[in-house]
Amino acid sequence: SSSSLSSSSDTIFALSSGRGVAGVAVVRISGPGAVGALEALTPGCRLPATRYAAVRRLRHQERVLDEALVLRFAGPASFTGEDVVELHCHGGPATVDGVLSALSQLPRLRPAERGEFTRRAFAAGKLGVTQVEGLADLLAASTSRQRDQALRVMDGALEREYGAWRSELAGIRAAAEAAIDFGDEMEGEVDAAATLGPLEARARRLRRALARALGVADRCQAVRDGARVVLAGPPNAGKSSLVNLLAARPAAIVSDVAGTTRDVLEVRLNLAGFEVKLYDTAGIRDAADGLEAEGIRRAREACDAAHLVCYVIDAGNYYWGTDFLSPQNNNNNNNNNKLDLVVLNKVDLIEDNDAMSTILSRLRTDLGTDLPIVTTTAIQPDGADALLAAIETHLVDRWDAADHDDAPTVVRERHRRHVQACLDALDSALLQSEPELFAEDLRLATLEIGKLVGAIDVEDVLDSLFRDFCIGK
Ligand code: GDP
Ligand code: ZN
């Protein structure tokens, strides 16, 4: 189990850089045997001073394995808190394999498990749970906003915020419990309202802080998980062609037969530093066969879960769109009026400006709202630039608000769940008139924050987190 892993009597090693051909590969060793392992690989050489790089021939059984840059860090001043050695080898697979196999033959050394270096860092108190989460996000970050946010989380933004909430909760609770004890001694003489009044004011202030944190959760989560953008619309409007064009590679199947895109396909884009997950969907219309109906059901699900729904219409075949766009259908099919952008595609098929104006004004009338309309031509290389620009504008308007520089507060679903539960417990506390019940609700609120910072259920959180880690991290 995981607890046996955190016993650090053994020394672990792993390739910490990516697999494959590279200029340099970093092999990391951590534990009490790390320095001994370096000595074994560099017989007759002086140990380098801690934190100074030195060039060394790595040898195993009379053979030279590589000429490498070696570094050592003495615990506790290291990432894991243990003695750590880094071997910066040449990146070829044979070199890496040679070094790893030599290490595995040394006594009391074993390959690291997924995330085991980080787990040891956590056990040594180098990182809190949310910082481990930030590290995981940083390693997975593919856009600048993801990187910025992950760095701040790793730097302790959440750890500090949650820690402050936790001590305030503890303070209020301690005061409530003291009042209860005092009340017992006075045998019911104490006025409950007088006792609770000031504590309720503190609880209300804390509640406001939690609500503010939840207010930016959408943005933080969209940055971390990506903004979900769905292309919906009737069959043959050109959704798959647009997705292909935007991905600049054949990601979705394009065909002339109506209703052939049965799966929702996903393409990832980087727009203004946001990771955008663009989904192609099967055409929304009344399905004939069951397979297609399944595709349509998924398309509707994708729309419901989307941050931005783009409705694609064939400009050369406009009547297709009118049904779906009618207000009645809009209410039935699109929860919360989920339709943010209309894409008039195939405008290359429109003869002249007059015809174009006619279609646009008809479309405007049919829509009955001032939804943005963009025009595209999926068969021209730059034919979807207007769509990209419109998506980008939407994301920036929505999430690049003045509070952009605020520290992230709630970036994972786990965070949202516990912050919300803590807020609910505070709400319940604020309805109580008995100090005992007030204190009990505060205890429940404290439990939720405890789960956030890993004071409670930490093994569950770490186990699920490290499942996503690579070996060597
Ligand atoms: P979907 O069912 O909405 O995914 O539509 P597809 O992307 O499969 O496209 C249906 C047909 O329309 C294909 O033959 C495409 O080549 C064609 N098509 C898509 N976009 C355009 C466009 O902008 N102009 C023209 N002329 N044809 C297009
Ligand atoms: Zn399609």
From TrEMBL:
Keyword GTP-binding applies: yes
One Gene Ontology cellular component annotation held by this UniProt entry: mitochondrion
BP term (GO), one: tRNA methylation
Entry superkingdom: Eukaryota
UniProt keyword GTP-binding, yes or no: yes
Domain MnmE helical: 130-470
InterPro entries noted in UniProt: G_TrmE, GTP-bd, GTP-bd_TrmE_N, GTPase_MnmE, MnmE_dom2, MnmE_helical, P-loop_NTPase, Small_GTP-bd
Domain called G: residue spans: 228-346
Protein's recorded name: tRNA modification GTPase
Organism name: Chrysophaeum taylorii
